Fold these 3 entries.
Entry 1:
Amino acid sequence: MEGYALENRKEGHLYLVTEDRHGKVYLWDFTEKTETEFLEDNLPSEVLQFATEGAMLQYKDGQYILYSPYGYDMLEDEEEEEKETEDAENLDDIENVEDVTDATDVRKDAEEEMDNQKEDFERDTDER
């Protein structure tokens, strides 16, 4: 299992501690948002002190350091930001639809005005 952990350690990546049990810590790659977590069972005791469930660790210079004790909050904040971004994109789509609707209304008004002018011209021509 240690080899598996070695494969998953990536310089600069953030890892969320999803579980800590009897010196065995399970990590989830917060940077890549992988589908699975992995067992990291070769942590020094000084890291185990802060590698508690919910903590965010960073793998830097070949070792884990505490990035934040509030990893779940970071995850939640990121999910909220993604939702806000999605909502903003949807709003942009709605505004684009409104722009198209406005443009359609302007086009219809212009066509109506042209029809009116054409009728006026034909009426004037018939009267002569």
Entry 2:
Amino acid sequence: MKKILSLCLILFTATTIVSCDKNDGDNTTSSDKLVKVTVHLDGFEIFEETRSTALEAGVKRITFSVFDNQGTKKKDIYQKDTDDNFGCVTFELPAGNYTMAAEGHTELASNDDYSSIEMTNNIALATISSSSIGETFCGSKSLTVADDEDEIIEELPFDRVSAKLQMITTMNQPSNAKKIEFTIGDSTKSAYSSYMLNVATGYMSGLGTDGCIKIVKGLNPTDVGSPTTIAINVLIASDGQKLPVTVEAKTSDGEVISSHTVKSVPFHQNAKTTIKGPFYAPPGSCVFQFNTDWNEDIDGGW
């Protein structure tokens, strides 16, 4: 009996020692520690208290997302241009490897017109409403968070990826012309209701193969009797992509006044392409011209 009691006492003492050793020190495991991460979107220059590039372009909404290496979304942050920290996000993450992705645009259909970003096959894709195809900025970057770090400060590239198309008429604007409808791509295909944008490259999928872009711009009545200049923003599928552009002048009731197609118009990210010609002329043999004007310094605007 004494031997049994002695054996139990020894086992109890050993268990107690092991338990004390296991609980000594910090109870927080490495997977529980959260590291503060601050990310500045390139071009906002928060440190200097001056904001340029994207803000000067008029970006109104930003979507910022973080994904782990399995493609699971860990953070979704939405910002509007009236926020004090617009262009800067702060959050906490445990140790691990992540991908950061951000998209911003200038035009809004509503006050809550944010894009959504999801990870598909290791590619961050932003879904943008067709009514929000203003000047578009995006960027993606990997992020590594280590246990021994208390705070990380990163800068995320945020570049203009949209192309600009400028139309210049060589004829005066007629009084019954109230709007211009642009069709970029094959006009026999359905128009996109939203755009799928690769946040890492800034290119959209499908344009030129499975759909087209339609954009309607109202005409200024004060321009009646004068040549018209209109600019629109376009997302493209590849650098230097050549697409047909159809320009239709319409009345307020949608009646087509004139319709002309300029074939093989070249588009580049962060560059302006100008098409020029008698767009108000009746359909027939009209001569159109185009040229491209590269904008090498994105800080300077268009």
Entry 3:
Amino acid sequence: MIYVTNKEKQNKRRMKENWNNYFSVIRLPEKLIEIITKKCSEIESLCSVELVDVFVSNVRKESGEEYKSLWFFSSDEKAFECKNFITDDDYDILCLHKNVAYFNIIKKELDDVENPSNESSMTVNCYIRGISMVCDFSATGVNCKYLVAISKKYYISNMSSEQ
């Protein structure tokens, strides 16, 4: 049996509040928040891990926002990608610790990452050593600011020149 302390419960509640703030800022529909909450619970249960950060990869189309993938991150430097998360249960798990060999940023209409405009967009690609995988992220508008934060915290900090 796993026991959870009150402090752990408080930290988890605070973390989820931060997620809800993020979802609100990027104007994520309630239906998608429900899907994300379900995916979070599934991954935490399947992998016996506590997820501490989330990122929703999105692009803007003429028809509106398109959500490409969902990313969760754990405190032990693992990334969990949920591909086509709205309709599929397709998960990849990556160990990021010093395994990032290449990082690419493409930005448009984004002069100040702290104050992106509605027209701002950003794409990030990084290569994970050992599994020959490229991680792709995209963001539009205010979500660009969150992509920068996730990139710094989990990908740029784990770049290594080791072979």
